[in-house]
Design brief:
The complex is a heterodimer of chains A (about 280) and B (about 350). Chain A is α+β, with helices and mostly antiparallel strands and about 280 residues long. Chain A contains 3 helices and 14 strands. In chain A, strands 1, 2, 3, 4, 5, 6, 7, 8, 9, 10, 11, 12, 13 and 14 form a 14-stranded mixed sheet that branches. In chain A, helix 2 packs antiparallel against helix 3. Helices cover about 25% and strands about 15% of the residues of chain B. Chain B has one domain: 2-Layer Sandwich (Alpha-Beta Plaits), CATH 3.30.70.20. In chain B, a hairpin with a 4-residue loop joins strand 6 and strand 7. The chains are: A alpha+beta (about 280), B alpha+beta (about 350). At the A-B interface, loops of A face helix 5 of B.
Chain lengths: ~280, ~350
């Protein structure tokens, strides 16, 4: 290393330190947004301003999409570990009065009904906690911690309540609508429900973040009931305040300051080793 | 086994846990003439229309033969062993293996004077219930066949119940009848896969599974004239080959035939579901020589074939029947032969025996 290049002019050294400080601070502030690294398991909630009941509606294009990895549910049913869908794209949105969830997943065949003895319809379900403040067991909730399920299968939608595998019960009157489109080997199903609801129904009015999980069934692969491809719990980031948990901002700030501190100490150390004036 | 021996033997009945009594049926295959009156009685009562056209909760098939649905015996289901811990995987048969709900030219022939043969219209079916009736097995003059009426076996260890992830199928506490709760059923059809006898049927119109209900409204007193009746398949049978009652009614003929004399056997015991429908195996005359003489000691229906259907115990059962036939031929009494010939409805259908409990 040419010592003349690094030393000599004290003014230039100071410019270097200042530049580093600025870079570190700016990096700490900007990096999270640049990487678009959402907090793990977050499903951002877009504002569509209008109606998004149609899964192909233009308004969906402005809503960020999250890719969820799917895996077989350990239901113990014959062939349960053998499922065909590996991922699903999820988008969530509100327009003030209604909540919308759109799920897209690859499926080469559109199995719309079960009118033959060996036919099963494709299906998708979106699961929320009945009580938004506690996360239920992922497999259809638990007896004291039930789940509110929006279910679409081959042209019909249902709203369900479940407290564990095998307990699914249909609401007498569903508050959920669903529209589905199959194009280019992919299903797009958009669920719509009034955002603010109470009782056995999950409130999606934006009071808080709400846990959500997704399941899909490929009918022509014999998938039905507990033989399904499911996601882990995610959460709809619809609560007030900074999106994502607060510890995240603190972590980024600590990281930025640590980078700054190490840089300054290193530069100062090098400078002293070379006997440069402070 | 003598009558006295049978009565002294300490027999008891294993019925399912949590079940008070177990309905049961004994069908004497020696009396079945294959007339399908039971089939029609059941169909008229329970499975006309509404997505049920292809279903025969009661069917009569010809054995040897491929049955209804075709090759149901190879369709899997049941249990891997008698500890009932692991189920055998099964399949859902294709619709074609049941046969279709064909339209026939009845009115043309009956009312319009058509000379056409009676046949399904606008289709060319390749299989249907009792399709292979005329085939049987063996060579002239020793060809043979017999009829096998089948309903749900209302098993003691029903693999259809175990297969349902929603517990929509259940065994009724009061009498062990296996039913599908239509409110709970979501049409997943694991029960269809799980039943080795293929006696649970998917109704594609209702998106639910359905099955034989052992005519429970009739045995509960909601039959014709608001009185207790045996199942329609039993009561309508011209040769009256069925006994209907409870397996644990120790004074009834079913208990005696199944538990004491052991001449009434379940179909395919190796499926390990422990059926509650029992069969008196067919007792055929011996083979004939070319000149029409009986060849004593050579069975017309090979024992190996009957073992395939009813297990090894069929040998003992047929030997017992033969012994009692000989006894009657010699002019002696036989309770067993009397039971197999009885035409006393009070004994044939014993349905009120536990009413006072």
């Amino acid at each position: 290393m040419n010592s003349a290049a690094g030393g000599g002019d004290p003014d230039r050294s100071w410019v270097g330190v200042v530049a580093l400080v600025v870079l570190a601070v700016a990096g700490a502030a900007v990096l999270p947004t640049l990487t678009s690294a959402r907090p793990a398991n977050e499903v951002p909630v877009g504002d569509v301003g209008a109606n998004a009941t149609d899964p192909t509606a233009e308004s969906w294009t402005s809503v960020p999409s999250v890719e969820l990895a799917l895996a077989s549910a350990p239901s113990g049913l014959p062939g349960a570990s053998n499922v065909s869908v590996q991922e699903a794209q999820v988008r969530a949105a509100t327009n003030g009065s209604h909540a919308f969830v759109r799920v897209s997943w690859p499926d080469a065949t559109a199995d719309r009904n079960a009118s033959d003895l060996r036919e099963f319809a494709d299906a998708v379900a979106v699961q929320f906690p009945e009580n938004e403040s506690a996360r239920p067991p992922i497999a259809m909730g638990g007896t004291s911690n039930r789940v509110n399920v929006w279910y679409w299968s081959g042209g019909t939608s249902e709203e369900l309540l479940a407290g564990g595998a095998g307990t699914t019960t249909s609401f007498d009157r569903s508050a959920v609508d669903a529209e589905a489109v199959h194009e280019d080997g992919e299903w797009h199903v958009a669920f719509t429900r009034e955002a603010e609801m109470a009782g056995n129904r999950t409130d999606l009015s934006g009071e808080r973040d709400v846990d959500v999980a997704v399941a899909v069934w490929n009918g022509s692969y014999g998938e039905r009931a507990g033989r399904k491809a499911v996601s882990e719990w995610q959460y709809l980031a619809m609560g007030p305040g900074p999106q994502g948990p607060p510890y995240e901002t603190i972590l980024w700030a600590v990281a930025g300051l640590a980078v700054l501190f190490v840089s300054v100490v290193t530069i100062e150390g090098v400078r002293r080793t070379r006997g440069e004036p402070a | 086994m003598s009558t006295d021996d049978a009565q002294q033997e300490d027999t008891h009945v294993d019925i399912a846990d949590g079940v008070d009594h177990q309905v049961a049926m004994v069908m004497d295959l020696n009396k079945c003439i294959g007339c399908q009156t039971c089939t029609v009685a059941c169909k008229t009562l329970w499975t006309e229309g509404g997505g049920r056209d292809y279903m025969y909760w009661n069917n009569v098939e010809t054995k040897p033969g491929e049955g209804y649905p075709k090759n149901w015996e190879e369709s899997g289901g049941g249990w891997k062993s008698d500890d009932h811990s692991e189920r055998q995987p099964g399949e859902i048969p294709e619709k074609e293996r049941y046969g279709g709900d064909w339209e026939f030219n009845h009115s043309e022939i009956m009312y319009d004077g058509s000379d056409e043969p009676l046949r399904p219209q606008n289709v060319d079916p390749e299989w249907g219930p009792n399709w292979d009736e005329d085939q049987g097995a063996g060579e002239y003059p020793n060809s043979y066949y017999f009829y096998l009426p089948r309903i749900c076996n209302h098993c003691t260890h029903p693999s259809c119940v175990e297969a349902c992830p929603r517990k929509a199928l259940y065994k009724r506490e009061e009498d062990g009848i296996v039913l599908v709760d239509q409110e709970r059923c979501r049409g997943y059809r694991y029960c269809v896969e799980g039943c080795p006898y293929k006696k649970v049927y998917y109704n594609a119109a209702k998106k639910k599974s359905e099955k034989c209900i052992f005519c429970y409204p009739r045995i509960e007193g909601e039959g014709p004239d608001d009185t207790v009746h045996a199942t329609a398949c039993a009561e309508e049978c011209p040769p009256q080959l069925r006994l209907v009652g409870y397996l644990d009614d120790e004074d009834g003929p079913i208990y005696k035939l199944v538990e004491e004399y052991e001449v009434a056997l379940p179909l395919h015991p190796e499926f390990e579901t422990v059926p509650n429908v029992y069969y008196i195996p067919p007792y055929a005359p011996p083979q004939h020589s070319e000149d029409g003489e009986s060849i004593e000691g050579v069975d017309r229906i090979p024992r190996e074939y009957l073992e395939e259907l009813f297990g090894d115990r069929v040998n003992q059962a047929l030997d017992t029947i033969e012994k009692h036939r000989d006894r009657v031929e010699r002019g002696e009494d036989s309770e067993l032969m009397e039971m197999l010939q009885d035409k006393n409805p009070a004994q044939q259908y014993r349905l009120g025996v536990f009413d006072d409990e």
